[in-house]
Amino acid sequence: MTNSINQSSAISILEQIAKFGERRQQVLAGNIANIDTPNYRMRDLPLDQFKQALKNAIENQAVASGKSLDERAVESSKPDIEELFTDGLFQAEVASPQNLTFQDANNRSIEHQSMEMTKNSMMQAFAVELLSSQYRALETVISERL
User: Fold this and answer.
1) Full-prediction pTM beyond 0.90?
2) Nearest of 117, 78, 97, 82 to residue 40 by alpha carbon
3) Distance, CA of 61 to CA of 8 (rounded, Å)
4) How far apart are CA 116 and CA 114, in angstroms?
């Protein structure tokens, strides 16, 4: 029952956004920590692939929201949330350089990393706030039934 509520609402998508934001913050912080390490290459998560998975998940939920619970249970052609957000989306890869490579073979840019951390932090805070709101709404509905 709880799983079907999570799958049919925005909760599962918001959880994935918060999870992605947390993992990306770790990767970006690692980049800043290694800013002076020779031969270190900046890393990042595949942001474009995550955005595409997010778009697909939202489209799937929009299609599913117009169907009855029985129709959603029978339909298995649409991928589940976990299938859309694969582990590969949460694995860091070497980022394309945003500037010239330095003589120590590092492609650092503290300004770019700081900007990305700020944008990522705002995205994650937004997702967590919406997620908290969704849980409060569920809690209100449940408490009214008892």
Assistant:
1) no
2) 97
3) 7
4) 5
d(CA 80, CA 56): 10
Distance between CA atoms of 90 and 110, rounded to whole angstroms? 22
- Write the pLDDT tens digit of every residue in 70-115: 554 545 455 677 778 888 888 888 877 665 556 565 667 788 889 9
Contact between 90 and 19 (Cβ < 8 Å): yes
The string of pLDDT tens digits covering residues 13-51 is 999 999 999 999 999 999 999 888 888 888 999 999 999
What are the phi and psi torsion angles at 50 (to 5°)?
-65, -40
- Residue owning tokens 């008892």: 146
> Rounded to whole angstroms, how far apart are CA atoms 62 and 47?
22
Task: Please report how the helices 47-65 and 11-33 are oriented relative to each other, as an axis angle in degrees rounded to 10.
Answer: 170
**DSSP bridge partners of 44:** 93
